[in-house]
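anyone seen this seq b4? input:
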Amino acid sequence: MVRAASTSSRGPLVVSALVAFAGVVVALWLCQLSVPHAWQITAVLCAVAIVGFIAGEYAQTPIPEAAQPWNVHAIWLVPSVLLTGPRQFLPLLLLSLAATLWPSSRQALRSRLPVAANTVVGCAVLYGVSRITGRWQWGLAVGLPVLLVLAGAMAVLGPRWTGVATRSGFVREWHWTAIEVCSACTACLVTVAMSDQPVVGLTAIPPMVLAVFALRWPELTSRARTDDKTGLPNAGRWEDLSRRALQTSMLTGRPVSLLIIDIDHFKAVNDTYGHLAGDGILISVAECIRTALGPGDLVGRFGGEEFVVTTVDLHESASLALAERIRRRIASTSHQVVTREGVAVVAAPVTCTIGVASSETLGHEHTTLLRRADAALSTGKRSGRDQVVRATAVGRPALPSAGADHPRLTQLSHPGGIVPVQLTPQQHPVGSRSVNRAGLPARPASRPAPLVTRNSETGALGALPVQRSRVTTTRPIPRSHETEA
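predicted toks r here
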């Protein structure tokens, strides 16, 4: 069964190769006959075009969203327009337009109209210059630069006329400029070679195939830098952009912060709803992060359920506020998912823990910021999750975003009126360890840290073990208790 399927998949390829071979043989045969020079040129260029179409069919992208409307038809259209008459080059022009405008699910028709218009106008310019001057050389020297200028104008103005934003702009993306310029140069060489010997035009087949495959270069580059699931830059691309931003900011003196965002208990999400549903939640979380950032900020997927953000020209306090907005936005977003049983449900919002490292306190070295942000993230994970933790220098504890200057109090529902005493991190019996969002000290998994308490009736101090279950009721102590204490 496997061998049969493999054999059947080779069928279209074999047929395509036979068609291309037949086109080349017919072109060679006509060149040996007493056929007019213009028709020999047309036959050879038709063979080149057929090979180009077949190569393009097998080289096209498997991702419809990444498809682009540009082509390299200039390699065989330019020699036809300059060296033959309208009766010979009009069939090739119609063939190019049909291939460009043929109904396809890969590109919208509006995105292909600028390319078709550029082809028609370019051929008209080439033919007009060559007929006015009476020499095809002038058409090549004057008309071809005009053709490239028109291609750039169509790439920029076409999306405005059609309302379609081109991801593969001719001017904005230099890869496309290089491919089109190389195609134009190849067309020049083919035109010069075919002016004496039409059969030499068959040498345009190898550069035609290479140009067709080169059309996928920008797409492959983009896929190598982009995370397939979320559409965000992958870890390598984010690191490159982040390092550049840090170098620029170090020269200009602007602050930069690195954020590491980790979704809490994401394995439980996959176990409950399925991995495909988990992918949908990742996409939703990525959109929450993206929409919360400014135009100069960078975001990428670090791996698994972790995301990374680089904020530029934001002080540490503003970066912490941004991280808090991201945390709240993620925690308040519900997710429509489909379970592994195929049932559409609304998943409960997920929470995240964020570690923030700023260049104002840690410098502009990328690796240092990343390590300290990761250390702050680990602190937040150990101390209850669902919080923003500010990274500090090595040897100093990481602190929640509001815990350094404003120590918070937590009131526990215990009998006997026992309430915690307000203590600064230096006065706390467990040392200057970080505190979590509830105001409790970070504790190891093996044994809970004691909490110093005072009996509101007797005034006696004592140690009360903290319960392992997370405290859900937290609020500042009323002013009366604070006064009595």
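The two ends are 82 Å apart (CA to CA). The mean pLDDT is 75. kinda curious what u guys think
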